[in-house]
Design a protein that fits this description.
Rossmann fold; 12% strand
């Protein structure tokens, strides 16, 4: 039976008489905010970093995937502001949590950001608000973490406020899709809250896909990421096998994908990066233990993908021995691209960092060039790499390195120049496919 809360929210949505608060203004939260402001929805962005808020309120963007012009337009239209004052969470009618969900040192979920955000919301929770979690996590997070914290306020769920789950599906750097064109999965535990989720997200997302409850919605996103992690691991393993058989895995994949059914191409690389694929599968592995169930595919895929930086280092050592007749000790190596994927400035979980560490442990001197990352941000896992700066990519500069390793295939990098000037090239992305005959020495890894 519809409640007064349900009816009130339906009227607010129908009249566009509501405001939204987004906690976390990163690669998920900021594009989401801009997609709303383009529909004249008033958004307040919340972030613990006041410097970010100042930049955004000044009309500038700090993400490659969000244009400063969009920020300026939203600010001019008075549809967007950013703040680090969490006390203002009382103001918006809809609050969306878009915070990181990393792993701790033991590969167990670190839900501290979700817990902190939930407590910030609980501190100001009022009647009439809807809380949506978009962070990727294990099925049951809303039930285990968010709901109990909000219940401590004494307000009644579904009578005074609602909770929904809608997993983010951002793909930074993908120019084929925008936030509003990616179908949005929504889940809620009552018909009334599910209808509110559908109506709300339907205002600024082209297609909304509903599932029957929150746990199912939580499972959808983690399934998507496990699918990618397992298939990437498979093609990485095939790469190693085919290399020993003197078969080019890239040519195999290109030919295989001509089959119009029963096959989907995945591509090998130096390892996994980004916030989702290397991390999220382990959330289900952790949760599955509660049900006395093993996740063998997930754990094996993780092992394979984590082993790839060492495989690339071994291929580099092989190349050095074959061409220079010596190993890595005392060699000068240039890493070309350290972002976790092409055409973005995101360095989270990049396989370039463990690769650099392995190479330097073998005595190599390692520099990097990345047009999107002028300087490595502080990194708790690889503090020795923090603060390093990108070197220019010039013909003279390339000639001084014993080997160039292509780790991230940014479109703006001139691979023709690398082919002409590099003494040895180790290519993990098939970036040199059009210049193979021009390379002095090319190795695929």
């Amino acid at each position: 039976m519809p409640t007064p809360l349900h009816q009130t929210l339906l009227h607010k949505i129908a009249r566009n008489d509501f405001s939204v608060g987004i906690i976390g203004l990163g690669y998920v939260g900021l594009p989401l905010a801009m997609s709303m402001t383009r529909k004249n929805i008033k958004v307040t962005g919340f972030d613990i970093d006041p410097t970010k808020c100042d930049v955004l309120n000044g009309g500038e963007s700090y993400l490659e995937t969000v244009k400063s012009a969009d920020i300026k337009s939203a600010r001019t239209a008075k549809c967007f502001e950013a703040t680090s004052d969490m006390k203002r969470l009382r103001e918006p009618d809809f609050i969306i949590i878009c915070v990181p969900t990393p792993l701790d040192a033991h590969k167990s979920p670190d839900l501290s950001y979700i817990e902190i955000s939930s407590k910030d919301i609980a501190a100001t929770l009022r009647k009439g608000q809807v809380i949506s979690l978009e962070s990727t996590t294990y099925p049951g997070t809303m039930e285990d973490i968010v709901k109990p914290i909000l219940a401590e306020t004494g307000l009644s769920l579904d009578q005074d406020y609602m909770v929904i789950y809608s997993p983010e599906r951002e793909d930074p750097g993908n120019r084929d899709f925008k936030t509003n064109t990616i179908p949005k999965v929504v889940g809620a535990d009552t018909p009334e809250s599910l209808e509110i989720a559908e109506k709300f997200y339907g205002l600024f997302i082209d297609k909304v896909v509903s599932v029957k409850n929150i746990r199912t919605a939580e499972a959808v996103k983690i399934t998507e990421n496990i699918f990618r992690a397992v298939n990437i691991a498979m093609v990485n393993e095939l790469k190693v096998i085919y290399d020993r058989m003197d078969i080019d895995v890239w040519e195999v994949v290109e030919a295989a994908k001509t089959k119009p059914f029963g096959y989907m191409p995945f591509y090998p690389g130096p390892g996994l990066g980004g916030h989702c694929i290397p991390i999220d599968p382990f959330y289900l592995t952790w949760k599955a233990r509660e049900f006395d169930t093993a996740t063998r595919f997930i754990e094996l895929a993780g092992e394979i993908n984590l082993s790839m930086p060492r495989y690339v280092a071994e291929k580099t050592m092989h190349a050095m021995n074959k061409i220079h007749k010596r190993g890595l000790n005392g060699s000068k190596i240039l890493i070309c691209g350290i972002a976790y994927k092409k055409n973005v400035n995101d360095q989270r979980e990049t396989p370039a960092f463990p690769l650099i560490k392995i190479l330097e442990e073998q005595g190599a001197q390692v520099d990097f060039h990345d047009p999107y990352i002028p300087e490595v941000l502080p990194n708790r896992h690889f503090p020795e790499i923090s603060g390093r700066k990108s070197v220019p990519l010039t013909a003279e500069g390339l000639e001084k390195y014993d080997a160039v390793l292509i780790i991230t295939d940014h479109d703006s990098i001139s691979y023709k120049d690398i082919a002409k000037s590099a003494r040895v090239i180790v290519d993990t992305r098939n970036a040199m496919k059009n210049y193979a005959t021009e390379c002095a020495a090319l190795f695929k890894a």
